Amino acid sequence: MFGYDLSGKVAVVTGGAKGLGNEYVEVLALQGCDVAVIDIEKELVKEESARISKMTGKKVKGYYGDVGEEKDVVDVIKQIIKDFGRIDILVNNAGILLYGPKEEGNDPYMDYPVETWDRVMKTNITGPWLVTREAVKQDMNKHGGKVVNIASVGGIRSTKAGCPSYHASKAGVIMLTASQAAELAPYGILVNAMSPGSIRNGTMGSRSANASNELGWRSNGCPLKRRGSYGEMSCALLMLVSDENSYVNGQNIVVDGGWTIQM
Ligand SMILES: NC(=O)c1ccc[n+]([C@@H]2O[C@H](COP(=O)([O-])OP(=O)(O)OC[C@H]3O[C@@H](n4cnc5c(N)ncnc54)[C@H](O)[C@@H]3O)[C@@H](O)[C@H]2O)c1
Known about the structure:
Blueprint: E1 10-14, H1 19-30, E2 34-39, H2 42-56, E3 60-64, H3 70-84, E4 89-92, H4 114-138, E5 145-150, H5 164-184, E6 189-196, H6 203-207, H7 217-220, H8 230-241, E7 252-255
Parallel strand pairs: 1-2, 1-4, 2-3, 4-5, 5-6, 6-7
């Protein structure tokens, strides 16, 4: 297990009902945090929070909330502060990847629907901005803390996979992080991004071409010749949110086995 001790801290994780977010909730609780989990999966977020609470002995509670909807976010953050007393760590993990139509006669790029574009933008970029705004305004400005925004290698490298909104939104998350780091430093809040490469078992990772093949096109270009694991993401997360990190700020930590650094 990791050496970082997060006892006594309260973390909020968005999109923690399943996938990588669920792993972050588990690891943060194992390291001593109480965790509030926000997700649109109403039942699953409660079930998973109860499971992790039982496993770790920590207070872990699930809340319904759409990170792109202002009223949901304002209300859920208010309720979390009421229930937990404070917020020390915020992980903006909720994100979606929606491809353009692939049916006969449709072009995934040229026929990409505006509704799909707007949904991705609301979740992936409005979400981290809005949840951070409320967490800071309602509590974190009083005592500081850590914010981690989950971006993607899709925010620094493009594909022609028919998901322009994903690339644009994740690039936006990286610059949002820089902006938040500058704006929030006076309050003692450090903000960083993490960009996963292709992560084994992640829902998005498993949707990618050749996902079941360890040497598929994503891992082929990776110097380590394999996909990443949940634990390898958590390792970077714990470093960023721990008290030991007092000077890494405004950065995008790319966890991709070196995939994006070679030509
Ligand atoms: N898995 C990978 O390989 C990979 C690679 C790069 C980036 N990422 C990023 O990591 C994050 C998690 O990815 P994952 O593969 O675990 O995804 P996932 O689809 O397994 O889980 C996403 C979670 O977010 C929730 N969610 C979706 N929209 C929401 C909204 N509007 N409000 C609140 N919750 C919402 C979902 O219900 C789900 O529980 C995403 O931001 C994704 O872009 C993942």
